[in-house]
Amino acid sequence: MTETTSKPKIPTWYWVASILGLIWNLMGVSQYIAQAYMTDDQLSQLTLEEQQMYADLPSWYIACFALAVFSGAIGCFALVFKKKLAYPFLLVSLLFATIQMSYVAFVLKMANPMTPLIILVGIGLVYLSKVAIKKQWIS
To answer: What pLDDT, in 10s, does the model give residues 3-33?
Structure first.
């Protein structure tokens, strides 16, 4: 007697959400790189207030930014390639994005619609990875 095991069918919305999450996080990576490698010429084109804000950002904030976007991108790549490793990376991303956005909102007092949106997308991606693991879409 032959026993066959079939993998559960992954719904289309999973692929759409995973790819959109990857694009979202790659945009975050590009923002981080743009900020980290901003030239003096680019910096001089900002207002004096913006220049001062960038100069005053603590190093831990920059580290949180990097950890949030790079771990988010790795987590979304893992979703696309159907790997359980997505969950811990997306959880780390959410943690550091929350720390980063809390600083933006409560210390810099620069809350805008992107601040809660970043956190909500992070929560959604963590939830997606948990559902995918539970339903055995990823292994």
So the answer is: 666 778 999 999 999 999 999 999 999 999 9
Domain count across the chain: 1
User: 68 and 97 in contact (C-beta within 8 Å)?
Assistant: yes
Domain ranges, residue 95: 24-34+56-134
Buried b / exposed e over 70-81, threshold 16 CB at 10 Å, is bbbbbbbbbbbe
In a domain, 111, yes or no: yes
Coil, strand or helix: which one is 37?
Answer: coil
Please write the tens of the pLDDT for every residue from 98-112. 999 999 999 988 878
Planar angle of CA 131, 136, 139, nearest 5 degrees: 105
